[in-house]
Amino acid sequence: MTTFNIQPVNTVLFEDIQQKINLKTKPLGSLGQLERIAAQIALIQQTLTPELQKPHMLVYAADHGITNSGVSAFPQEVTFQMVMNFLSGGAAINVFCKQHGIEMCIADAGVNHDFPKGTPLLDLKVAKGTANFLHEAAMSEEQLQEAIEKGADQVTKAHQEGCNVVGFGEMGIGNTSAASMLMALLCKLPVAGCVGRGTGIDDPQFANKINILEQAKDFHKLSGEDPWKVLQTFGGLEIAMICGGMLKAAELGMVILVDGFISTSAFLVGYKLYPALKDYAVFCHQSDESGHRRMLEHIGAEPILNLGMRLGEGSGAAVAYPIIQSAISFLNEMASFESAGVSNKE
Ligand SMILES: Cc1cc2ncn([C@H]3O[C@H](COP(=O)(O)O)[C@@H](O)[C@H]3O)c2cc1C
Ligand SMILES: O=C(O)c1cccnc1
């Protein structure tokens, strides 16, 4: 499997950054989490004057064989239908990216649909969806490798265009099931504690989803010690591309915007392999998908927002973006006690 060169961020500058923050015209610590975010990004960029350049939101769509087992409230074709919606600008992520000046790219990672020639969609298709992991591994090792590399390459391209901050979104009916399995195996938690209602399944469907996912866990008998194997077994192709993209972004010293339950499950795989990945990640929100809070706790992540959102697509990351911009702006633009002639605390 591809290897990544991910260095923990060098913290030598930390005291200088903290000093700069503390000398701003405000009581110590009064900008709360903005101070933590500013310091993190300054460290990632190794500068006292960090900048966010050409933000990108890379959205990957793929289908999941597990949808045949009745785990979602929506049919599989909604994946491709939503891709068409992304392309015509009508989805939540389009609206938020437009609002905040984030360049959105939509890629077919593995949708079970033949898009007509000329569809303005980045074609990264690895397969027409994954296999049903209730009976077999979601993907082959080769498919996983291809997805990781394609995700990594897309981030390299964005970086070459001058992007230094990248968010990841996904669309894939059934992908909360894949993410729940990654969580159960990699966090070593009982499946039931990792399963939520996704697109909004009712009580009997929820009981079925837990039952199906428990059966899948029993069938594969994985220990969870090999994160690549866990990802290969439970998928999906969009999650694998996000994972490859996040790892490459960290290698390139970029800021990673982590979205909700699915996006964090991709992060989790990368994090288990390369713990330094966390240094580069800003956790944008806590999704309402039950399980996300515990997943974030397992990582030791502090999410910026908690708005009861549970959509995916990268929407939580896009909505949090202006807050991250505020963190950078105060660090660069606020006066210090000295420059403004304001008396500091005795
Ligand atoms: C119209 C629509 C738009 C979406 N945008 C994101 N998702 C989200 O819901 C899906 C996961 O939930 P589950 O595992 O229950 O299928 C993913 O596609 C995710 O991106 C959507 C779902 C729907 C129906
Ligand atoms: O938090 C998410 O990413 C999420 C939650 C529910 C459905 N789709 C995505």
Summarize this, please?
With 346 residues, the chain is of the alpha/beta class. The protein has helices at 14-22, 32-45, 77-87, 92-100, 141-160, 175-186, 203-220, 227-234, 237-251, 261-273, 292-299, 315-333, 337-340; strands at 56-62, 103-110, 122-123, 165-171, 255-258, 281-283.
Describe the structure.
The protein is 46% helix and 9% strand. It is an alpha/beta fold. The protein has one domain: Rossmann fold, CATH 3.40.50.10210. Helix 9 (237-251) crosses helix 10. The chain is globular and about 70 Å long. The protein binds alpha-ribazole-5'-phosphate and nicotinic acid.
Keywords:
346 residues; alpha/beta; Rossmann fold; six-stranded parallel β-sheet; 6 strands; globular; binds alpha-ribazole-5'-phosphate; binds nicotinic acid
What is the topology?
Layout: H1 14-22, H2 32-45, E1 56-62, H3 77-87, H4 92-100, E2 103-110, E3 122-123, H5 141-160, E4 165-171, H6 175-186, H7 203-220, H8 227-234, H9 237-251, E5 255-258, H10 261-273, E6 281-283, H11 292-299, H12 315-333, H13 337-340
Parallel strand pairs: 1-2, 1-4, 2-3, 4-5, 5-6
The structure holds alpha-ribazole-5'-phosphate and nicotinic acid.
Separation of the first and last Cα atoms: 58 Å
Ligand names: alpha-ribazole-5'-phosphate, nicotinic acid
Write down the secondary-structure element order: HHEHHEEHEHHHHEHEHHH
Instruction: Name the CATH superfamily assignment.
Output: Nicotinate-nucleotide-dimethylbenzimidazole phosphoribosyltransferase (CobT), large domain
Biggest β-sheet: strands ordered side by side in the sheet: 3-2-1-4-5-6
Rg (CA only): 20 Å
Output mean pLDDT: 98
Helix and strand content put the structural class at: alpha/beta
Q: What is the domain total for the residues?
A: 1
Our estimate of the beta-strand percent is: 5-15%
Biggest sheet features = 6 strands, parallel
**Count of helix runs:** 13
CATH architecture: 3-Layer(aba) Sandwich
Instruction: Write down the CATH topology.
Output: Rossmann fold
Helix content: 40-55%
* Number of beta-strand segments: 6
Low-confidence residue ranges: none
- What form results from the Cα inertia axes? globular
